[in-house]
Write a structure and sequence with these properties.
This protein is an alpha+beta fold. It contains 6 helices and 4 strands, in the order αβββαααααβ. Strand 2 and strand 3 form a beta hairpin.
Length: 150
């Protein structure tokens, strides 16, 4: 699984569909509560994804396409926050809008973004979440924006 490659699809799809873009974001994984997929702090430079959910989805999904769609959906939602869609409901709507215009109607990213991941994968709610005390920085992320770094 390559967060950087998935994020490049996120950035291209948001730019193509909405005409918005932003550079210089980083990614970190943390042990967050299971009802929180990820977060981006307003004005921040990092998207923090829930490592508990990432690990669980790697086992619950039945294909690489389905798992990558989960990552795409979470990253798109947080990226949309970072380009100005601060309202949570609006970010959810726009995530679905971008996915629908990027993929076919039955694509897992469309299904995930138009529904509720916790209803689609109810086993997620039985997981033991964390308190965000552990943070792991992903070193290769948004490399298209930082190609000057070796």
């Amino acid at each position: 699984m390559d967060y950087d490659r998935i994020f490049s699809v996120v950035k291209r799809s948001v730019k193509a569909v909405l005409g918005k873009e932003r550079s210089g974001l980083g990614l970190a994984l943390s042990n967050l509560p299971v009802t929180l997929g990820a977060f981006w702090q307003v004005g921040g430079n990092y998207i923090v994804m829930n490592e508990v959910l990432v690990k669980a989805m790697s086992m619950l999904t039945t294909s690489t396409r389905e798992f990558n769609s989960f990552v795409y959906t979470i990253l798109t939602h947080e990226y949309l926050h970072s380009v100005g869609y601060i309202d949570e409901f609006q970010a959810r709507q726009m995530t679905a809008f971008v996915a629908k215009h990027t993929f076919a109607g039955n694509h897992p990213a469309v299904i995930m973004s138009t529904g509720d991941i916790w209803k689609q994968y109810p086993d997620l709610l039985s997981l033991q979440g964390g308190d965000g005390s552990v943070l792991k920085i992903i070193s290769r992320f948004d490399t298209e924006s930082t190609s000057y770094i070796a």
